[in-house]
Every structure is written in structure tokens, then in C-alpha cells.
Specification:
By secondary structure, the chain is α/β, with parallel strands linked by helices. 43% of the residues lie in helices and 16% in strands. The protein has 13 helices and 14 strands.
Length: 365
């Protein structure tokens, strides 16, 4: 898959405009990273086939950070330095310490994981989120559990790191607003291999619903042990868990029925113009065996948004010009998915949906 990506993107080596991307390709979260890169590459191939932007062709400079924050930092320095990227696009996340580099180089990063909060400004003037905050995802689940499912018996599985602890506190607060208190809160290490003790504790607490605030691998391992040990609660995960990685890890039958929050349009929804455009671009420019996925849809949206900002920046675009175009982007409709960064909004989209893994390993709504 890496070779295919390089083939797709390498044909544009003498392009005039360079976009930079650092994602995990060879790491555990490689499916997500490869999907992000494929979607972004397809968006670039699409615009180049139509003549480029103001006559200039676009190239993607792609680096593998292996899911390591220190590599993402050094990759970003390479992209803004040696590669002379005009903008950074479609990152898997924004680790601590990246903002000063962006501010020093005055370069925009479009599509950078979920926002830290619902606040308009977000992490930095130079970071433009296309995902709503995880708080919005938790709010959606808490509302659904209380009103749609009619249950107040909730358990939490929380990854024991800065992300998990912060989101666990948010979950407690959102549940409390609705008169709910978790029956059990179980923490696990991000690298944990045996989630049996966590499953045992939550089964004994007997919740009707368990919210998993965990990355793909530990979430998948928990689901497997929970079900093997007889747990019957409905399981939900935030969008940071990639359903394809979960299914690959534990199989479609075991993953079936698990709910996962999504923050981008369903890739197979042919009713949506954006989805039809994405499907057509994937058919024309992606490798024959490439699957439609939320990850490549996310990369495609990040690419389309950035390319539009570059177009608006005019001939001979600069980093400052692209930044200004993004800050002035108001209600940009990609075809049923609206991006709005105007009025100092740095969280540009609001979609929060809940999907379920089917018995075939696909998603249903």
C-alpha cells in the first residue's frame, strides 16, 4: 500500500505547489494514516487532472511518523523546511509542542485530529480542525444513552494517558448533566495487551452501556475479552477508534454491534454530492483495490478544503495568503458538508453521527 501511495503521488514530483503531510503509515494506526494519505492524494490528483490551481500543479510530500510524536515533530520541520510546503494537511493529530513550529513558520495545518475543546480559537491560529471536539462526541453519546436508550446504567473504559483522562473527566461531567454517574470507571494503559481485568470489572458492575475512550487496538482487545467473558452491555467508542483496525484485530463477528461515533459523511452515501464526488475521484485515481473508508473521506475533505483556500489565495500563493483565505472561509459547501472558519472559528465542521459495525465488518447507520 505504501508503494501504491508513492506511485500515486510521485508522478507529480515537479509540481509547483507542495502540500505536506505526516501520518502513521507503518504503525498500529497505519490503516488510518494510509487512508488519510490516499484521500488527500486523490483530491490532489483530481485537481491536477483539471489543470491544477491557477495553472500550477500540486504535489504531496508524504512522511511516515510511525505514530511517534517526536517523529511527527521532525517530519513537520522537514516539510516546512526542505520540502518548502505551502500548507500542511491531513495529520492524524496535533501533539504538544507543534503549535510553536507552525507559528514560527507561519504555516497553516488543515485537518489535525479532533479539537481540544468547543472553543472557536482551538489550539492555535494556524491549526484548522475539520473534526468537532471529542466533547461534542461524548455529548452526543450521553444524550443518546439518556433519551434514546432510556438507560442510566453506564460504565467507562478510559485509556490511562492525557487524552483518556481528560475525556474521561468530560464524560463524567456530560453524564452528570443528565443525572447519570458511571457504575464503574476502569483505566488501562495504551499499550495494554490483556484487557481481561478491565472487562471483568465492568461486567461485575452490570452497566447497560459502556463508553470506550480508547485507541483502536486496546478498544478491540477489550471488546474481544468482554464478549468472551459474557458481557452483554452495548459498547460505544469515540471516533479515535478506527473500525477497520478493530475489525481486522478481532474479526467482524466479534466486533458486530459495536457503536462508533463518526464525524464525516458516510463514504457510501450516494445521496450526498460530496460522497458522489469522493467515490468518483477514488474510482478514477485510487488503486483498483482501494476501499472506500472514513479515513480516506477525511483526507479527501482536508485536501478539497486546502486546495480551495490555495485557489482563493490567487496566483503565486504564499503561506500568509493561504492562512488568510482559510480564516475568511465562510460556509464553504463541499456538497452537503459545510466548512466554516470565519469569525475566528478554528473548528470548521459540526457533524457528529453514530454508526454500528455490522456482521460483515462494514458500518451501518
Amino acid at each position: 500500500m505504501i508503494a501504491v501511495l508513492l506511485l500515486l503521488l510521485g508522478t507529480l514530483a515537479r509540481a509547483d505547489i507542495v502540500l505536506g503531510q505526516s501520518v502513521p503509515i507503518s504503525a498500529v494506526a497505519g490503516d488510518s494514516g494510509r487512508g488519510l494519505s490516499l484521500g488527500l492524494g486523490v483530491a490532489i490528483a483530481e485537481v491536477n487532472a483539471a489543470g491544477g490551481i491557477n495553472g500550477d500543479k500540486v504535489r504531496l510530500a508524504l512522511l511516515d511518523d510511525q505514530g511517534k510524536p517526536e517523529l511527527l515533530q521532525s517530519n513537520t520541520a522537514t516539510l516546512v523546511g526542505a520540502e518548502k510546503a505551502l500548507a500542511l494537511v491531513g495529520y492524524g493529530g496535533t501533539p504538544d509542542g507543534l503549535a510553536p513550529l507552525l507559528e514560527r513558520e507561519k504555516i497553516a495545518l488543515v485537518g489535525a485530529g479532533a479539537a481540544v475543546s468547543d472553543g472557536q480559537q482551538g489550539d492555535s491560529r494556524y491549526v484548522f480542525h475539520l473534526r468537532p471536539s471529542y466533547k461534542a462526541e461524548i455529548d452526543k453519546l450521553a444524550s443518546m444513552i439518556g433519551s434514546w436508550l432510556g438507560s442510566k446504567r453506564v460504565g467507562l473504559l478510559v485509556q490511562n494517558d492525557a487524552f483518556g483522562i481528560a475525556m474521561g473527566n468530560v464524560a463524567n461531567a456530560e453524564l452528570a448533566k443528565r443525572g447519570m454517574k458511571p457504575l464503574a470507571v476502569v483505566r488501562h494503559e495504551a499499550t495494554a495487551q490483556d484487557l481481561g481485568p478491565a472487562a471483568d470489572t465492568l461486567i461485575k458492575a452490570a452497566p447497560d452501556v459502556v463508553i470506550m475512550i480508547s485507541n483502536s487496538k486496546p478498544a478491540g482487545l477489550f471488546i474481544k475479552r468482554f464478549r468472551e467473558m459474557g458481557g452483554g452491555a452495548q459498547l460505544y467508542s469515540l471516533s479515535n477508534a478506527n473500525y477497520e483496525e478493530v475489525v481486522e484485530l478481532i474479526g467482524a463477528e466479534t466486533a458486530s454491534g459495536v457503536g462508533i461515533v463518526q464525524v464525516f459523511p458516510y463514504p457510501l452515501d450516494s445521496r450526498l454530492k460530496l460522497a458522489r464526488d469522493y467515490q468518483a475521484a477514488m474510482k478514477s485515481y485510487a488503486p483498483k483495490r482501494a476501499k472506500l473508508s472514513y479515513a480516506s473521506m477525511e483526507g479527501y475533505i482536508a485536501g478539497r478544503t486546502t486546495l480551495e483556500a490555495i485557489r482563493r489565495a490567487g496566483k503565486n500563493p504564499t503561506r500568509q495568503g493561504v492562512l488568510q483565505a482559510l480564516e475568511e472561509m465562510r460556509a464553504y459547501d463541499l456538497g452537503g458538508f459545510v466548512v466554516d472558519f470565519a469569525d475566528s472559528r478554528h473548528v470548521g465542521a459540526k457533524l457528529v453521527d453514530v454508526t454500528m459495525i455490522s456482521g460483515t465488518g462494514n458500518l451501518s447507520r
